């Protein structure tokens, strides 16, 4: 089955959303486009937009490749996507509240008890505690794919600490700098309001004990050696708030306070980019130097908001993901607007048997995996790789889920030979507090190698600007 080409219709010709872009491309010389692509790389290099690849000695800091041909989504398609995303994040938040309280969904037999109780991302320390504003997942990235039948599906949820929003913002700024005339011809919805909305969203869930009228917000980073450090610094700067490390913080008078030139100042909301295990050495890993000793006590006393709340990582679990249709229906009373990709849970004997018999056509993922690591892409793997993976599957079936190899939709990228189709996915960013705010578009990740389905930046993928038309 051929993938859905988002720009070109099967009978030839350009689909309507891309018509204005095509007219503009028709009058551009290949040399000029090539020069603009080089200019874009220069902008990214100058801004210092890099990410670290762990275990890669050659390139500790690498530039994520950026493609200058935008991906275009109609306003109508976006409205439908937004409804589905909003429904999903509301259900996710209700699910987290439920599993850390009465666990009604378990009692109703809709989700197996052991999937929660034995899940390494489940935090017993959160039982019976309700975060300020009753919000668990303040910032969510929902990965969406478009299939050969031109249907949108959710591939995974990122409710722990989704990254990539800085690339969405810098991609747009770079495009506006390079092609101002294009934005006059095509009406595109803005994304640059995200940092302002992020700040408003975080301020709206400040704890009752703090400064409600003008809460103090800070971004907690593991430090400059973290792969997403650029993003942490960028977002703190864009919001006009402090970027702090664990060593800058301590408990003062029952509050978390940060060191300033005038002494310690209490923080109301901490947007943390440090994983749960490293957040509080008194509660979790005693060897952690990245977190703040005692922060969980301050949190449970209601004196700070941590975004996202500890324990939200269970919503990223791919076995939990497989129950999302039930989760959405259980908490919203309606069927999911956005469907999941069909998923086999290897923990179930029948599913495991099917997966082992069809490894050459499936993608198998670790339930806690992220970034494209620890997975098998059946059609691209050798017989020996599949056999080795089958042994891992048999040894720990509950650790894996499997999905069909999707024919991800394509959009064109600029190559030396002109425009060529490449596979893409989309990560829209959602803010949840007093209301749900969804930035129009998101981060489009693109597989730069011909025929490749791997869009992860850590494995050779690139990004492009995502335009939602104002129609």
From TrEMBL:
It holds the Pfam family CP_ATPgrasp_2. InterPro entries: ATP-dep_Glu-Cys_Ligase-2, CP_ATPgrasp_2, UCP005522. Gene3D superfamilies: 3.30.1490.270, 3.40.50.11290. This is Circularly permuted type 2 ATP-grasp protein. It comes from Paradevosia tibetensis.
């Amino acid at each position: 089955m051929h993938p859905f080409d988002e720009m070109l219709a099967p009978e030839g010709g350009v689909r309507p959303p891309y018509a204005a872009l095509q007219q503009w491309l028709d009058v551009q010389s290949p040399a000029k486009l090539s020069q603009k692509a080089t200019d874009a790389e220069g902008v990214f290099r100058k801004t210092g937009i890099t990410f670290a690849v762990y275990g890669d000695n050659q390139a500790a800091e690498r530039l994520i490749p950026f493609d200058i041909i935008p991906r275009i989504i109609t306003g109508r398609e976006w409205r439908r996507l937004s409804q589905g995303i909003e429904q999903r994040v509301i259900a996710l938040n209700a699910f987290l509240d439920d599993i850390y309280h009465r666990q009604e969904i378990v009692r109703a037999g809709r989700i197996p008890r052991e999937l929660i109780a034995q899940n390494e991302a489940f935090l017993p320390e959160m039982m019976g505690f309700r975060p300020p504003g009753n919000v668990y997942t303040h910032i969510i990235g929902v990965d969406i794919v478009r299939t050969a039948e031109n249907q949108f599906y959710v591939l995974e949820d990122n409710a722990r600490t989704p990254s990539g929003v800085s690339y969405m913002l810098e991609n747009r700024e770079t495009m506006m700098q390079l092609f101002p005339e294009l934005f006059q011809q095509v009406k595109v919805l803005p994304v640059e309001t995200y940092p302002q909305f992020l700040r408003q969203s975080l301020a709206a869930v400040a704890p009752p004990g703090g400064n409600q009228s003008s809460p103090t917000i800070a971004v907690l980073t593991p430090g400059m050696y973290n792969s997403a450090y650029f993003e942490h610094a960028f977002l703190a700067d864009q919001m006009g708030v402090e970027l702090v490390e664990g060593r800058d913080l301590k408990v003062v008078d029952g509050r978390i306070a940060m060191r300033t030139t005038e002494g310690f100042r209490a923080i109301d909301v901490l947007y943390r980019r440090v994983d749960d295990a490293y957040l509080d050495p008194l509660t979790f890993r005693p060897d952690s130097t990245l977190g703040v000793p005692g922060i969980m006590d301050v949190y449970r006393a209601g004196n700070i908001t941590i975004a996202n709340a500890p324990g939200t990582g269970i919503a990223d679990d791919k076995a939990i993901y497989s129950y999302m249709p039930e989760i959405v229906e259980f908490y919203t009373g309606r069927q999911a607007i956005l469907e999941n990709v069909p998923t086999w849970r290897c923990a179930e004997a029948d599913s495991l048997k099917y997966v082992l018999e069809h490894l050459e056509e499936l993608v198998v993922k670790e339930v806690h995996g992220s970034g494209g690591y620890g997975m098998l892409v059946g059609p691209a793997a050798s017989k020996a790789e599949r056999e080795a993976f089958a042994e891992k599957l048999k040894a720990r079936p509950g650790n894996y889920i499997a999905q069909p190899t999707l024919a991800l939709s394509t959009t064109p990228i600029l190559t030396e030979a002109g425009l060529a189709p490449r596979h893409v996915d989309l990560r829209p960013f959602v803010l949840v507090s007093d209301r749900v705010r969804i930035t129009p578009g998101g981060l489009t990740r693109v597989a730069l190698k011909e025929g490749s389905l791997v869009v992860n930046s850590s494995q050779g993928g690139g990004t492009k600007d995502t335009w939602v038309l104002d129609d």
